[in-house]
Amino acid sequence: MTQVEPSSRRSRRSDADARYGEQSRGNDQARSGRSGGAGYGGGYDNRAGNRAPREPWDSPDSRGERPPSRSESRSESRAGGPSPRRSQPAPEPFPDDEDGRRGSHATTYGQGFSWVVAWTIIGALIPGLGLIAAGWRRLGAAVLGVLGVIAAAIAVWALSGNIMKKGVSFAVDPQKLLMLAVAAVLIGVLWALVILLTNSQLRRYATLDTGQKAFSWVVVAALVIGVGVPTYTVGDYALVQRDLVKSLFNSDSDSDANDAKPNAEAADPWAGTKRINVLLIGSDAGATREGIRPDTMIVASIQPSTGNTVLFSIPRSLQRVPFKSGTPGEEAWPQGYYCPEAGVGNECLINAIWRWAEGDGAQYYPKTKFKNPGLRATEDAITGATGLEIDTYAMLNLEGFADFIDAIGGLTLNVSERLPIGGNSKNPVAKAWIEVGQNQKMDGYHSLWYARSRWSTDDYDRMRRQRCVIAAVTDQADPVTIAKSWTKIAKALKNNMATGIQQSQLQAYVELATRVQGGKVTSLSFTNAAVGGTTVNPDFDLMHSKVQKAIKKSENAGKKKSTATSTATPSAGASTGTDKGTGSGSGTTKDDTDKTTKAEDPDNAQDVTEVC
């Protein structure tokens, strides 16, 4: 008699094992029902509702063997052998699993090249989803959970108050900036690791050819770089900003009891502050110069509630300047800063007070009492000349001015008179010229010479152009450009700027700057006519009255955004200087009938669009 081949050795359909037990038990139930539980003894006990014990061939040790059915026995007896059954080969075990089973984290879905690439990208965009698709469900869910918590925390932080104010508070806090830099690097590293793990697990059971493997690695590299660049940029910006805040806003100025100070803890830090007066100084300090001699002095008097601002230009040739009452300067010069005996070129001009305080005047402004004697003496003199209490200052070295302008993307300025580049009053020869024209886009180099050029005109026209540059910076500074070029801007400011603003006050001053940008800017230049005829013997009472008149007019004006690049037809007016340029080109002179230099009102502050 022919021996029956065990079913484990016979080929069968892949679903045979899954269906066999059910089919067998169904047949057994039928037979059991007809015979009252006789026969093979399989099926269920209807009375108890429980499954009857399985026969030996149903047990795990039977290896799937069962006795032949009656039909099989008859067929076997007729043909003299077993009856073959329709079947297909059983699936082969996965080659990388010794026991023929896949890992507990694996998934049977996909396994194609496009599936691997698609889920790698999805897993990079939404960390965690790719891991879930790869079978790492717990880890993927954990990553998604952390991502959700972070997103929720950011949303709550952003919606729980003024987001701009919170952002500024973050940007001016060195400790928070350091935490942001560390967090950015940590997030970037973890994000990159998630991408690498996701791709490796997706490829674990996928069959990829050489080209597909190479392309897959290219995708992974691109995603890692795409994650690394922004996180590195955030960290770099945070560290640059932290360095700037710590180095620049660490005041070397001396606080005065009369200085207006913001309340950094209040909702409106400037509530109750009627005016804030900031001394803007353009310094000509450099490697070839000894000490500091202010080249530009402008007082920005700001109304915090509206942002309306008046710019008062102080001529550097102002003499007999009285010092603020009760100061060491007044003790040293009770009749004002004046020394005619010094001779031509050595007169006691207001821009020489800084060096005097650090030299011969050191006994009046000793460093043991004052952090910056030259600055303090200059502020006392400006207060005496204008009647305005100077609350803080900002000083920019003009050698770094060009770098700053380049960093913010340049300035658009109106040129109403042909200006020389290079040369001086002793050697009036220009290397090049800035030609007349409206709305000229200038880089830092040309913007600097626009503000500094003097020998072809006089000091007052130069002061006018300097105010135009300040107004242009205020009006044209593009937040997007500033953000993109912040590292360059920060470097230029750090190396070339000093200020009396403290770290604790920085957020309040940033808010003040936004109000100024939305307010109306007017200007008044103290020319010879505005100071009573001459800067050698100026009328300081007249200057005080003009200051108060300009401030009152500014306070009564409505908010109106101004620009330093108006294209309105320039008003005619006599020039206060003479064009000494001899270069080729269509230059303008004092006597040109179509002269484009705008006239200034010596009695009233004007909108910058009227003089720029």
Give structural notes.
The protein has 612 residues and is α+β, with helices and mostly antiparallel strands. It folds into three domains: 16-79, no CATH class; 113-248, no CATH class; 276-611, LCP protein (Aminopeptidase, 3-Layer(aba) Sandwich). The chain is built from 19 helices and 13 strands. Helix 12 runs antiparallel to helix 16. The model is unreliable at 1-65, 73-79, 92-108 and 561-597 (pLDDT under 50). Residues 34-44 have a biased composition (Gly residues). Residues 293-477 form the Cell envelope-related transcriptional attenuator domain.
Summarize the structure.
Keywords: Membrane, Transmembrane, Transmembrane helix. The protein has 19 helices and 13 strands.
Biggest sheet overview: 7 strands, mixed
**What is the terminal separation in angstroms?**
118 Å
Reported by name, the CATH topology of the largest domain is Aminopeptidase
- CATH superfamily grouping of the largest domain: LCP protein
Number of strands: 13
- DSSP helix fraction: 40-55%
Mean of all residue-level pLDDT scores: 77
Q: For the largest beta sheet, what order do the strands appear in spatially?
A: 11-6-3-4-5-12-13
Question: Can you identify the CATH class of the largest domain?
Answer: Alpha Beta
Unreliable runs:
1-65, 73-79, 92-108, 561-597
Percent of residues in β-strands:
5-15%
Oligomer: single chain
Q: How much is the radius of gyration in Å?
A: 42 Å
The best one-word shape is: elongated
The CATH architecture of the largest domain can be given as 3-Layer(aba) Sandwich
Which structural class do you get from the secondary structure elements?
Answer: alpha+beta
